Amino acid sequence: MKNQYCGDVGDYGKYGLLRYFASKGIKVGINWYLTEDDGSNDGKFITYLEKEHEREYDPVLFDVLKEIVRQENKNIAMIEAANVIEEAIFHYDLLRSKDLETANERIKGRKVWHEKALNTLEKAELVFADPDNGIIGSKTVKDKEAEKYILHSEIVDYYNRGQNIFYYCQKARRTSEQWEATKAEMQTYLPEAKICVLTYHRGTQRSYIFVMHPENYKKYMNIIYDFLRTRWGKLFTEEYINGKNPAAQQKGNKLEIELENGVKMYLSTLEDGGVKIEFSDQKNISSKMKADDFARYFR
Questions:
Q1: What pLDDT does residue 29 have?
Q2: Would you call 154 helix, strand, or coil by DSSP?
Q3: What is the pTM of this model?
């Protein structure tokens, strides 16, 4: 994240997503992965704020961002000051590596910066990380460009102390195969973690990769699916990994019920807590509903 990006069209969707989680009672921690402005045109895509119909997605947020971009020295501290993300915790420290001459200096500097971020965000249930480019991939912390990326070990540290985390990541110039590998990358480091990818379709592709604890998966997926049923659902989509929707995977055995007409109905619970319904006379057709909605038919 750079201060020059503040209020950009990408920010609108990002803060909309964060605001929705906060509105559901989730304590959000934001690590900006702040880097210095670079004088480029990035962050100047703010014409959406001149279009009144764009306000429909989140009127409060829209008005705040419209005011922020009018400021000569806009910066991310204005987001906290506006209190648009309820009860959020923020880590602002500038992340530097390109200005450090040796690999050892970059390793030490990153370690100190990360430990401070961990301390600042300790009380958050959900940590959002906003690096310029996303996950580091084949680069290492020794690289001068490492400041633009989140490290695998940093995600692991948040996760291993009980927090859920999601981070910004660009598809950029990756091929489809490389992007599929990137989306699933953290499963190598955290095999038990549940992964979900949301992509915001405004300007360049902007994706958010969630790494969740299994016991929180149902709750978080319900929040995500409810978010996609709001107006924001016009701009966000869930991306599956290698074409498979992990939330729709069967959990446990199917329950088979034979109806009076001889047709068999099959019920199965899914990873996200939903119920899948299939009938023997309707091949390749199934329905899904929330477990609570399904239960209402029997009350």
A1: 97
A2: helix
A3: 0.80
